[in-house]
C-alpha cells in the first residue's frame, strides 16, 4: 500500500495494510506497525478505533508500555485530553519506582517499572501497547497499576492475539484492538 494513499471508503482496520512484514529474520516481530504511525489518517483512524469501545467510560489517565506503546498511548491521551504515563523497561527512570519481572513474547526475562507517584488509589488507567502476543508484557503492566492501587479501565492494542495470555487479559478486562474478526486467525498465526 502506498504510504500516503487514503482509501475512498475507510472500513475499520484499513490501515493494517500499511504495516510492513519482517525482512530481517526470526529475532524480529513478524510485522512492523511503525509505517502505520507515519500515515496521518492511518494513525488517527487507528487511535479512534482503539478508543471507540471506551466512549463514555471514566478514564483518568492513559499509560503506554515501553516503547512502541508510547506512540499509541500518547496519541490516545491527547485525543482524550488526559495525562500520559510511561511504563518503562527497568533502569530508565531516575525517580522512585516499583518493578515487575515478566517474560516477553520472545521468551526473554525482563523487568518493567513505573514511577510510584503517578498512580493514586482508584485512578482509572487505560493501558495501551502496540501488540499483545503472549500477554506477558501487558500482564506485568496490569500488575504494576493494580499494585499501586490503580484500576485498569481497559486494555488497547493494535492486535491482541488469541494466545493463553491474550485470553487471560480478555476474560478479565475490557479490551479493544483493530483486527477485524475475519482476519484474527491470520494475525494469531503470523501469516
UniProtKB/TrEMBL annotation:
EC number: 2.4.2.7
GO BP terms: purine ribonucleoside salvage
Reaction(s) catalysed (UniProt annotation): AMP + diphosphate = 5-phospho-alpha-D-ribose 1-diphosphate + adenine
CDD domains, sorted: PRTases_typeI
GO-annotated molecular function: adenine phosphoribosyltransferase activity
Main location per the UniProt record: cytoplasm
Record has NAD as a keyword: no
Signal peptide start and end residues: none
Top-level EC class: transferase
UniProt subunit comment: Homodimer.
Full protein name: adenine phosphoribosyltransferase
Amino acid at each position: 500500500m502506498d504510504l500516503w494513499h487514503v482509501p475512498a471508503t475507510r472500513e475499520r482496520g484499513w490501515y493494517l495494510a500499511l504495516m510492513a512484514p519482517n525482512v530481517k529474520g526470526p529475532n524480529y516481530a513478524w510485522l512492523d506497525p511503525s509505517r502505520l504511525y507515519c500515515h496521518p489518517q492511518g494513525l488517527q483512524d487507528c487511535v479512534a478505533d482503539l478508543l471507540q469501545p471506551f466512549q463514555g467510560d471514566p478514564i483518568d489517565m492513559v499509560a503506554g508500555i515501553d516503547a512502541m506503546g508510547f506512540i499509541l498511548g500518547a496519541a490516545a491521551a491527547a485525543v482524550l485530553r488526559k495525562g500520559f504515563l510511561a511504563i518503562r523497561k527497568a533502569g530508565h527512570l531516575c525517580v522512585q519506582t516499583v518493578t515487575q519481572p515478566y517474560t516477553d513474547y520472545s521468551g526473554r526475562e525482563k523487568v518493567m517499572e513505573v514511577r510510584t507517584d503517578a498512580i493514586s488509589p482508584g485512578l482509572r488507567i487505560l493501558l495501551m501497547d502496540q501488540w499483545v502476543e503472549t500477554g506477558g508484557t501487558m500482564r506485568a503492566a496490569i500488575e504494576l497499576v493494580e499494585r499501586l492501587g490503580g484500576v485498569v479501565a481497559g486494555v488497547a492494542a493494535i492486535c491482541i492475539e488469541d494466545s493463553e495470555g491474550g485470553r487471560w487479559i480478555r476474560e478479565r478486562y475490557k479490551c479493544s484492538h483493530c483486527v477485524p474478526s475475519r482476519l484474527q486467525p491470520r494475525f494469531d498465526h503470523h501469516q
